[in-house]
C-alpha cells in the first residue's frame, strides 16, 4: 500500500509504504523505466551489506518501476545537518559516518557497482547502533578514576547508502560515458566532462559530503548549478576550509585529485590517518 511521499529528486520519487502481509513499513522508490536498465536492477537486487539499504522487491507498470526497500526511520544526514535541526557536525563525528560510507562503497565497488549520486540526502541514519572497538586515550577519565590506555567497546550510529536509481554496473560504464548523471554539486570533473564514469567518481563525491557535513553545504553551493559545474572542472580542487585539521585536509585533497586514476579507492581511504585516529580515540 502506497503512502505519503517522503522524498523526491531528478530521477524519481520515494514513498512510504505498508506491507499488507506483515505490517512492516517500507520505502518505495518510483523510477521511470527510461532511467534504469534491467542489468542495473539485477545488481541492486543482489546487494547485501550493513551500510546499504536492503532491497526487498519490485513492481513494474508500463511506465515506471517501483523499487521496494527497507524503511530507514531516522531520515537522511542532509536533514539532520539543517540549521533548524542539529547543524553541521564536528570532524570526529564526520569521521564516524564517512568510515561507514567508505565501507559501503568498498562493498559496492567490489560488486562492480558505481553509485553515481553520493550525497548526504542519500545517506540514511538508523536507530540501530553498531559496536566498535576504540582505544581510550591516556589521561582520559571514566567517572572519578583515571583511565589507562586500553581498548573499549562503544556504540556508533549506523548509516546506510540509498537511492540506487542511477547506479550502474561497471561493465556498462564505457557505454554511458556520454551521459551526465548525478547531482551537480557532488559531481566529479570526469562526469561533467563525460570522459568516463568510474568508481573514483564516487570517491570525489565522498570529499563533497565531508565538506557538506562540516559546513552544511557541498562545495560551490553558493553558485547556480551551471557555474558550479564550470568551477569543478576549472579549479585545481574545491576550496577547503582553513580551520580543518591537517589529517582531514589531506583526506580531502586525496578525494579531490583531478585525475581520477590518482584518487585512492575506498578501501585505501579507510586506512587514512583521519579515519584511523577517529577509531582509536574515544
UniProtKB/TrEMBL annotation:
List residues of the Protein kinase domain. 1-275
Name any GO cellular component annotation: cytoplasm
Record's keyword terms, sorted? ATP-binding, Kinase, Nucleotide-binding, Serine/threonine-protein kinase, Transferase
* Catalytic class of the enzyme: transferase
Which Pfam families does the annotation name? Answer: Pkinase
- SMART domains linked to this entry: S_TKc (SM00220)
SUPFAM superfamilies, from UniProt? Answer: Protein kinase-like (PK-like)
Q: Which CDD domains match?
A: STKc_Cdc7_like (cd06627)
Could you tell me the EC number(s) of this protein?
2.7.11.1
GO molecular-function terms, A-Z: ATP binding; protein serine/threonine kinase activity
Substrates-to-products reaction catalysed: L-seryl-[protein] + ATP = O-phospho-L-seryl-[protein] + ADP + H(+); L-threonyl-[protein] + ATP = O-phospho-L-threonyl-[protein] + ADP + H(+)
Specify the protein name.
Answer: non-specific serine/threonine protein kinase
